[in-house]
Protein: Holin
Amino acid sequence: MKIGSCAKAIVSAASAGLAAFVTAMGDNVVSQGEWVTIGLAVLGALGIAYVVPNAAQSDPSSRTRP
Structure:
């Protein structure tokens, strides 16, 4: 397992969880349903980011300049 795919999943899960948490804190209270939403955002981001492969690096010499 490469560290890149694992780190990518962890960062995306933390970002999704934090975004959902900040949205849930709009009224200064996090309800049970909002905790479920935060958890699902974290799990969804973990699953998607871990499964999707990183893009292959392109050859910089093959790029055309205008």
